[in-house]
Amino acid sequence: SCFVCILINIDKIPRATLKRLPLYYRFVSILKSKGIDRVNSKAISEALQIDSATIRRDFSYFGELGRRGFGYDVKKLMNFFADLLKVLISFWEVLIKDIGISISKINLKN
User: Fold this and answer.
1) 3-state secondary structure of 24
2) Contact 64/79 with Cβ under 8 angstroms?
3) What is the Cα–Cα distance from 47 to 9, expressed in whole angstroms?
4) pLDDT 10s digits, 14-63
5) Fewest CB within 10 angstroms: 24, 35, 38, 60, which?
6) What is the model's pTM?
């Protein structure tokens, strides 16, 4: 998946979707630790108490993560969400650092 593409379009991804990413990651990590290889949106929905249509819509912001009738590959989902969360955290850390530097410069001028 194109993480740069996701960052470029981050403003098109609802904040609620971004807030659910760690939940999805934790859930698929648990599935992986139990040796479960495949999961569908209904199972995710029941476990997390999130409507399955919401889950499918959330996942659609990140491209083709699953296949109709097959569901989602747990390892692929886990790796995807882990990588995505790392990229998002790094992005926010850089942004916060840049904001801090900008605020420092403003304070120094005053």
Assistant:
1) helix
2) no
3) 29
4) 889 988 999 999 999 999 999 999 999 999 999 999 999 999 999 988 87
5) 35
6) 0.72
